[in-house]
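Quick review question:
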């Protein structure tokens, strides 16, 4: 084990960074087979479609369903031989576009607490009718529709955003800019986003890849003059438990078995909304039911308690699920969760991120404690990201657990 004081990032192996994200029509090969990603339209699946996804996971995948940071659902362990039949099933049940071209349109991420008729969902419906006319954009491009009183998607990557100004007016924000462009109404917002997408391509955006990397100043017709409303500590982010729309459940480290999800999709559930926080909003359940978690799903399968320490943890699939990971992150994550102070919830001890490699797929922002896999062991990073400079390297799981119990890096 190497001591504290490591100064060189070159000590970590460079992960293979892919310039695209998997989809249904374009699956990605991983350590456990093909990864097939599903984008729920408007961030929602009716109950019947969610049950169909559970069926697909069991028939063609490993039986696991994952919820990503961009609020997509994905199946793991799909074989190349089984993928054509899976695709036919997904298309038939409305879980995938009928062709690959439809999947290449920019992803829409909605603030999941939307209500019918509000600005967030109406903007999404307007955009869906316009996206066929948009230019071809980089695979990772996305739009965040976050037009509530205060933004809730500020930490989620997006190239264009619909938000509110400090005064409450509508804004379109291009990622990487200090100010946003005011718009009169939703139609004007959609028109501006459409023009900015074309402008992005025309000014070299395809080479830049993302809006934040494009250094060209915004055109005069999109002058950015207004500040956007900031999120605050009391900005509502969905926590497990009763909700005005139904009930929120968490997926431990972003994954759950199809059987566990099927168990909570009772007859009174009308639909499932996805979130970028690895939680699902189950629509239609009474706001204050008494939920017997032992009857609906074992505690290790889904999170029903807002105090569960796993809500303050991010862990990628790790080995053997991911070919780039050299460590088995899931077992360590569970072991550390069990050692967190009882009833700690999301705030105690800061956020913990366990990454199988330096890509940091589970979390792009900093965490109070980050453990990054390298050559079968872990680097310890404090208040940083998965590719930041560690304070200790070459840690085994026992070293990590010792640190977690003492919070004393000098003992490593």
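Suggested answer, residue by residue:
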């Amino acid at each position: 084990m190497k001591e504290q004081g490591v100064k060189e990032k070159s000590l970590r192996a460079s992960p293979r960074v892919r310039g695209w994200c998997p989809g249904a029509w374009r699956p990605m090969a991983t350590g456990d087979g093909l990864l097939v990603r599903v984008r729920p339209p408007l961030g929602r699946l009716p109950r019947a479609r969610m049950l169909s996804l559970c069926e697909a996971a069991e028939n063609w995948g490993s039986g696991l369903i994952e919820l990503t940071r961009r609020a997509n659902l994905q199946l793991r362990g799909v074989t190349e031989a089984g993928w054509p039949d899976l695709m036919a099933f997904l298309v038939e049940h409305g879980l995938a576009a009928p062709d690959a071209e439809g999947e290449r349109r920019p992803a829409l991420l909605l603030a999941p607490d939307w209500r019918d008729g509000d600005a967030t969902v109406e903007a999404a419906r307007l955009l869906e009718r316009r996206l066929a006319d948009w230019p071809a954009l980089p695979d990772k491009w996305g739009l965040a529709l976050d037009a509530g009183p205060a933004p809730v998607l500020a930490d989620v990557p997006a190239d264009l955003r619909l938000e509110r100004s400090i005064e409450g007016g509508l804004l379109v924000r291009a990622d990487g800019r200090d100010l946003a462009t005011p718009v009169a109404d939703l139609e004007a917002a959609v028109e501006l986003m459409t023009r900015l997408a074309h402008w992005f391509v025309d000014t070299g955006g395809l080479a830049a890849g993302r809006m934040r990397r494009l250094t060209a100043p915004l055109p005069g017709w999109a002058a950015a003059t207004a500040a956007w409303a900031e999120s605050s500590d009391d900005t509502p982010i969905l926590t497990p438990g009763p909700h005005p729309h139904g009930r929120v459940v968490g997926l431990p480290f972003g994954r759950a078995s199809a059987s566990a999800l099927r168990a909570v999709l009772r007859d009174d559930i009308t639909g499932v909304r996805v979130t970028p926080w690895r939680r699902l909003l189950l629509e239609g359940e009474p706001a204050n039911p008494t939920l017997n978690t032992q009857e609906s799903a074992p505690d290790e399968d889904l999170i029903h308690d807002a105090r569960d320490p796993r809500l303050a943890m991010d862990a990628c699939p790790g080995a053997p699920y991911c070919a780039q990971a050299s460590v088995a992150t899931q077992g360590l994550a569970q072991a550390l969760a069990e050692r967190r102070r009882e009833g700690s919830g999301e705030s105690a001890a800061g956020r913990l991120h366990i990454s199988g490699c330096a890509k940091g797929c589970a979390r792009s922002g900093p965490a109070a404690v980050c453990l990054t896999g390298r050559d079968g062991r872990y680097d310890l990073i404090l208040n940083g990201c998965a590719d930041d400079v560690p304070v200790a390297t070459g840690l085994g799981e026992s070293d990590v657990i010792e640190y977690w119990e003492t919070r004393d890096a000098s003992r490593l």
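Why it works: DSSP finds ten helices and 20 strands in the chain. The chain has four domains: 28-102, 114-222, 241-303, 310-411.
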